[in-house]
Write a structure and sequence with these properties.
With about 110 residues, this protein is mainly α. It has one domain (about 5-114): Orthogonal Bundle (c-terminal domain of poly(a) binding protein), CATH 1.10.1900. It is built from five helices and no strands. The N and C termini lie far apart (about 85 Å). About 15% of the residues are buried.
Length: about 110
C-alpha cells in the first residue's frame, strides 16, 4: 500500500512561509529552504526587538527630559526626584513630549518644582 502524505498541508505550510518572505532579496524570497531560514530568523528578530523597542524609547525619553531640564538649570535625576516628591504623576513619555513639543508647559512643571 502506498504511503500517504498530506500534500495539501505541506503546500499550505510552504505557501505561508513564502508569503512571509515576500519582499526579501534574492533567493530568500522564492527558494523554500532559504526562505524558511530567513523567515524563522526574521521572526526571532521581531520578537526580540519588540522588547528592545521599549528600552530604546525609554532611553530616548530620558535624553529629551534631561535636555529640557538642563535648560532650566536642573539635571535629570534632580528633576525626577522632585517630581516624585511633589506627587506629580507624569510619566517619562509625557514629560519628554512636553520638553520637545510644548516647552512652555514643561517650564511650568519645572517652576512648580522650584
Amino acid at each position: 500500500m502506498p504511503r500517504s502524505v498530506n500534500s495539501v498541508a505541506s503546500r499550505a505550510r510552504r505557501k505561508r512561509v513564502l508569503e512571509l518572505a515576500k519582499g526579501y532579496f534574492g533567493r530568500k524570497k522564492n527558494v523554500w529552504t532559504v526562505a524558511k531560514n530567513a523567515v524563522e530568523k526574521g521572526l526571532v528578530y521581531a520578537y526580540r526587538d519588540r522588547k528592545a523597542k521599549k528600552r530604546d524609547f525609554r532611553t530616548l525619553w530620558i535624553a529629551r527630559i534631561n535636555a529640557g531640564a538642563r535648560l532650566h538649570g536642573m539635571s535629570y535625576s534632580e528633576l525626577m526626584g522632585k517630581i516624585k516628591k511633589a506627587g506629580i504623576d507624569l510619566n517619562r513619555k509625557v514629560l519628554a513630549d512636553l520638553a520637545m513639543n510644548h516647552p512652555a508647559a514643561f517650564e511650568a512643571v519645572v517652576k512648580k518644582l522650584k
